[in-house]
Write a structure and sequence with these properties.
Blueprint (H helix, E strand, L loop, with lengths): L7 H6 L3 H15 L6 H15 L6 E3 L11 H9 L3 E6 L8 E5 L5 E3 L5 E3 L3 E2 L3 E5 L2 E2 L5 E2 L5 H8 L4 E5 L20 E3 L4 E3 L16
Parallel strand pairs: 1-2, 1-7, 7-10, 10-11
Antiparallel strand pairs: 2-3, 3-6, 4-5, 8-9, 11-12
Helix pairs in contact: 3-4
Bound molecules: the ligand Nc1nc2c(c(=O)[nH]1)N(C=O)[C@@H](CNc1ccc(C(=O)N[C@@H](CCC(=O)O)C(=O)O)cc1)CN2 and adenosine-5'-triphosphate.
Length: 211
């Protein structure tokens, strides 16, 4: 969560205090549910690849895993093999959107903020943004680490289609939402591809097959 700041302008951009507190509590509880599980990661990669194959796309922003997170590295390799352009996020100072840099198998990774790593390659604009989640609901709302990075990034990339991913254990009935939260149109877990009820559908013209 961004620390509350003292000017009216900053307060306007932050979640109301009750929402911020509810997100903090849920974030702490959800962190305890994570574990790096190779079989679970493989299943999430499988369903993500299945979903992405139904879209007419050229490029995908993936993630490079933090400790305890689902590992999308096998998906990066598989999608690269499929001929897609792969980007990975570089994490800027809080308050700014992520940038995505071109990744290729074996490319050097640089250390970044909060233990992240990113490639040195050129900045790219993805058709699809895979969005990591600590918790989610079936409306499509999500909770991340509290930097507001993905909400800012999706607001800055209105033509990119977001696809959330998480373990099914991280599903909640309803995530507390603030004014900047963007509902995702689709969420993938190790069990299923969820078409969310509240998510807008940016990039719909890239649909080739119903899924
Ligand atoms: N793999 C991955 N990459 C990602 C994200 C992510 O969630 N997962 N991000 C999503 O926005 C961005 C990085 N944002 C982050 C923002 C805050 C913290 C953070 O506060 N980390 C805590 C430790 C959290 C924990 O307990 O595990 C810390 O560093 O103290 C981490 C990442 C971009 N890259
Ligand atoms: N587009 C935006 N413009 C201004 N403020 C924003 C924007 N998106 C999010 N914020 C603010 O950033 C703060 C952190 O947001 P939030 O708690 O939703 O992060 P998160 O979604 O859990 O984290 P992340 O997206 O990094 O995974 C909140 O105060 C939120 O209001």
């Amino acid at each position: 969560m961004v620390a509350p700041q003292n000017t009216p302008e900053h307060r306007m951009h932050d979640d109301p205090p009750d929402i911020a507190a509810a997100k903090r509590a849920l974030r702490d509880a959800s962190k305890a549910l994570r574990s790096r599980d190779a079989a679970l990661s493989a299943d999430v990669c499988h369903w993500l690849r299945t979903h992405l194959h139904t879209r007419k796309i050229r490029s995908v922003a993936c993630t490079w895993p933090l400790e305890h997170e689902i590992d999308l590295r096998p998906l990066c390799h598989a999608l690269h093999q499929d001929g897609l352009i792969i980007g990975l996020p570089e994490t800027p100072k809080k308050g700014h959107p992520l940038t995505f840099r071109l990744w290729r198998p074996g490319c050097a990774m640089q250390p970044g903020r909060f233990g992240t790593q990113h490639p040195e390659g050129p900045v790219m604009t993805p058709d699809i943004v895979l969005v990591p989640m600590l918790a989610f609901d079936r409306r499509g709302y999500r909770l991340g680490y509290g930097g507001g990075y993905y909400d800012r990034t999706l607001a800055a990339l209105p033509h990119a289609r977001p696809v959330g991913y998480a373990s099914s254990m991280q599903e909640k009935t309803a995530i507390p939402t603030g004014p900047h939260d963007i509902a995702l149109p689709v969420i993938v877990t190790e069990r299923e591809i969820i078409h969310c009820s509240a998510g807008k559908n940016p990039g719909q013209d890239d649909v080739t097959t119903p899924d």
